[in-house]
Task: structure prediction
Amino acid sequence: MLLELDGLGRSYSLRWAVRDVHVRIDASQCWAVLGANGSGKSTLLSLILGAIRPTAGEARLDGRRMRRGAIAARRRMMLLTPDLSLTAGQLSMHFGFVAEAYGVELEPATEVFTHWIDQFGLSDFRKRSLDTRQNQGLSRGLRCKIWLATLFAIRPPIWLLDEPHQMGLDAFGLETLEAEMNAHVLRQNGTIVFSTQWPKHAHRLASHAIVLHKNRPAFAGEISEMPRPASLSDPVLAALLRGQPE
Result:
């Protein structure tokens, strides 16, 4: 599986949210998108998914351009963001809706989903009614665990994770997420692109990185080649990269 970002960019009201992204992402790779607040990380993930239309360039999956109507291609990806909502109804209804959207066989996928719900200690929520607007007071961390169970059950080839370490997960949730990220890439030939503001997360989990600064890549490539803060004249960029392992 090959994901190509060719000059990808998006502007709003004549201001670039992100621009000039040129990268090639292969199967069995984990890419970290590093950037400060407002650098375009979330926009880039939405562009990869085809959820928003690019102003410039294009994203291609196995040579085919990603666009909002490309249902078959979008079924090969799932995007998780910090502000996740749940489909109204019980957990089984939520999962059934997502499973149908992804075209997976419901019964075996539901068994995996139920397993992860139990692993996260959410068995009591199975019959609980979920409200689309308020999710009946569920914390962000609990909503994230439900979506992680959904992701692990559907398991599309490409995972897009928007600041997963800021989703309100507890220690067990974070350990489980990182273990499954490693398993998806190393054992299942999957691809992950996740955003973060912390170089330590990138170095621990990713093989490659895109560093966004002033809404465009300051670096894109193997993470071992990422520049050291001391070599940079821009203090904002240096601060972003500070904390890399020696």
